[in-house]
Amino acid sequence: MITPASIMGHRGVPSLAPENTLSGFRKLHELGITWVELDVTLLGDHTPIVHHDDSFDRCCNISGALRDFGRDDLKQINAAARFPELPPESPPTLAEVALLLKQQGTGLNLEMKRHGFSARDMAVTAIDTLQRAAFPSEQLILSSFDFETLAECKQYAPHLARGLIFDTLPSDWEILAKEIGAFSIHCDWQSLNYQQVRAVKNAGYQLYCWTANSPAAVTSLWQWGIDGVMSDRPQDFLSVPLQLLF
Length: 246
Ligand code: G3P
Ligand code: MG
Hints:
- One of its GO terms (biological process) is lipid metabolic process.
- It comes from Neptunomonas marina.
- This is Glycerophosphoryl diester phosphodiesterase.
- It is a single chain.
- The chain is α/β, with parallel strands linked by helices.
- It has a single domain (about 5-245), classed as Alpha-Beta Barrel (TIM Barrel).
- It is built from eight helices and nine strands.
- Strands 1-2-4-5-6-7-8-9 form an eight-stranded parallel barrel, surrounded by four helices.
- Strand 6, helix 5 (about 175-180) and strand 7 (about 185-190) form a beta-alpha-beta unit.
- Helix 1 packs parallel to helix 2 and helix 3 (about 120-130) packs across helix 4 (about 145-155).
- The site of magnesium ion has 3 residues, from strand 2.
């Protein structure tokens, strides 16, 4: 049974701290937010790290493709480069993040981005890392835009919850969701209409929306029945009246 996940920080709390970093995940916890969505991908030596892009160019103090780096290179890289007022910190490994989140009691929506690696490598490496950290399964959703990665997760760790991510809900969404035994559907909030929300909910899936940064803009989605939002500004959702969330 997955614990409720009505507000998830998207990549941590990137409006206040560097995205996908330990300091960001600590900040999220300080704010009282109990779930996080973050991205995991692989370095060239198959170390799973928490990072969104396939290169370091956008967020870090260096440029280059992740597959050209290994775990030993991380200490040279500053993932807080866009927050010059904050101390530098390395992009975290999934192992480090899993330990921190477990200690904090933060639920984890782990978005797997394989960026050219095989679906099997992505799924098995991420799951093995979480299992070594004894990360609690009731606080974990494995999610991906990539159907093959989720299919590998189903085969390797069928007991773990899986979330299928879409930009726009396709007409065959339910066939795909059944095939990988999805727990949840994750959709761009701007693309959803009332009929789609009700179809997903009536079929029995949790429905999470990304990336909702204005509570007012998603008022109708809560009323239609969504279960949660991922937000760059999760702190702004803490004051949304509870009756709207459930
Ligand atoms: O979990 C889905 C959400 O994060 C949207 O995708 O590109 O921000 O990882 P992206
Ligand atoms: Mg993501």
